[in-house]
Amino acid sequence: MHRKYQNPPVVEALCEVSFDPGQPWDGTLPGLVYNEIKQKFPKKRQQMVVQFGIQIRGQDPTSVPPPPAPPSQETFSRLQFLSEDEKTLIQIAPDVLTVNRLKPYSSWNELKPVIFYALDNYCKAANPKAIRKIGLRYINRIVIPLPEVKIQDYLLASPNIPDALPQRINVWLQRSEIPFDAAGVLVIQTGSVRESGQSGVVFLLDLDFVTAGEPFSIGTAEDKLEVAHQNVGLAFEECVTDMARKLFNEVTSGTG
């Protein structure tokens, strides 16, 4: 059971599902999904996304290296469907479904049904063969109302500076990828955030659990997602300290 907080530091929770398509992508599919969900997600907008990639050319190690391949560029449209208050989003791109919940985040018991509501309606329209992977990500913003603090007093996933060097850090960013056997990979990103008008210290704790392995059936998505949620919750509690928890105002009953 996860702890629950009156003032959780979550600024965004999101679930991204990538599919093994059952048919070529059809640009009319987002509209079919919207027809099913428009009562709960009446607002819509379109976003153009540019994705860059670098092609790696194989070569004979004894030959003269060829010139590098130019970066590839792919442009695609992403449709966003928003709740009336614009705090919950369903986003659809080619063979990808994303559900976002912005602050205030209430609980997993409220977010999970929205994810499967979106997933069910997507699958009815697109009829994918399987799910390639699911990513569950929680972005936390921890504000400490002090001009200067020791990082380890609040975050345990933090830089380790050799004793011979000055221990004062102005800006830092750290990323770790931790495999959880066959279940997936946990990505932990921590760092400091500079914000204008903010007199205190702001830390970022970004936790993303992504399933691993071969594509799996839609019917097993709930089990996969529960494992991801358990591991993200475990990572959060292991990364923060009791001093940080005091900022979140822990409650003694319920689940998060």
Secondary structure layout:
Layout: E1 4-5, E2 10-20, H1 29-37, E3 43-53, E4 72-82, E5 88-93, E6 96-102, H2 108-126, E7 130-144, E8 173-180, E9 184-192, E10 201-211, H3 221-239, H4 242-248, E11 250-251
Antiparallel strand pairs: 1-11, 2-6, 2-7, 3-4, 4-5, 5-6, 7-10, 8-9, 9-10
Helix pairs in contact: 1-2
Q: What structural class do you assign from the helix and strand content?
A: alpha+beta
User: Number of helix segments?
Assistant: 4
The tally of domains stands at 1
Spatial gap, N to C terminus? 8 Å
Looking at the structure, the CATH topology is TATA-Binding Protein
Please provide a written account of the structure.
Helix content is 21%, strand content 36%. The radius of gyration is 21 Å and the shape is globular. Helix 1 packs across helix 2 (108-126). It starts with a strand and ends in a 5-residue tail after the last strand. Strand 8 and strand 9 form a beta hairpin. The mean pLDDT is 88. It is α+β, with helices and mostly antiparallel strands. A 9-stranded antiparallel β-sheet has the order 3-4-5-6-2-7-10-9-8, covered by helices on one side. A two-stranded antiparallel sheet has the order 1-11. The chain has a single domain, classed as 2-Layer Sandwich (TATA-Binding Protein).
